[in-house]
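User: My instructor asked us to take a sequence, write out its structure as tokens, and then describe one feature of it. I'm not sure where to start. Here is the sequence I was given:
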Amino acid sequence: MLTTETSLSGFAYEIGVSFQRDTVLNILSNGRSMLGRYSLHNDTMVIKKLDGRDEIWRVRYQSRDTMFLYTGKSKVKYYSRRLEFDGSLELDTLKLFAQGCFGTCPEFELTMTHAGKVAFNPIRYCKIDQATEYTLSDSLWRKINTQFKTSWIHRLDTSRIYSDVDDWSFLTEITYNQVSRSPLRVQHPIS
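Assistant: Let's start with the prediction itself. The structure tokens for your sequence are:
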């Protein structure tokens, strides 16, 4: 997923921006915050900030559902419909299965539940060689669940397989709102 800045502001970091009617919002790792009202003139967006100041953004790239905006402060803001926050999504279980390649790629199973319980089961070529279980802190689980709320999981095409030549793959099974999703297969090289 593309993100904007990685600079921390308190405990939250910016993921992108969102638009609601005539208002622009920052999508942060812990929710959204209102920046102000906006108007669009050709490739220029004028943001009327809450403190009364105007901020000018320029549209650098735009497609059907994605936009890159330059704020004039050497910062790029990223908008995508895929980053829209959906507060009704609740992550129940996430399972990752890493398997197969033509070399020494790590193979393992990892399961994370809504209670923050994590179980890691190494199969081969892992630095951790025995099954491990632990519990995530409440704040870390909230961060993961907040990120999940911007996932657009309910519109994700799980019938596609994204692949590369070395055959190392992740099989991801996600259960949310007590509904199981078809497994998502992602194959890619180790970097």
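For the description part of your assignment, you could build on this observation: The chain has one helix and 16 strands. Try explaining in your own words what that tells you about the chain.
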